[in-house]
Amino acid sequence: MDPGQLRFQAHSPADAAQMSALLALGMICAVKSNAVSADYACAKLFRPSFLGRLRRLGVDEEFCESLAEALELDDVASLVESALPSLLERLTEILTQYLASTEQARHDEPRYCWLDGYGTHREDPP
Question: Which of 2, 63, 77, 119 has the fewest CB neighbours in a 10 Å radius?
Fold first, then answer.
């Protein structure tokens, strides 16, 4: 791997969903606080290819469908701006509930570092 790259790797479909939910929640928080625009969020993360990759990895279809609403952020912001805050709140609630439910369900599973090239959470990168 190029030393200038930063890559994260999920170790299972559940890991991919959890990682994606965390990324999506962070991006939604950034849009809500006006740190980034809805256009930026859709250009950088909320793209059809994002959902396509999750589906190919075997991520739960119900999760993918709920995340699909995020792909509309730029359209909602430009066409019906008054609807954007409620969409952001709905997505925040969905993602927060999802993360709470998966973390509880996965409490006893071994944790792996998402930073590509490292194993368990107990191994520190050099």
Answer: 2
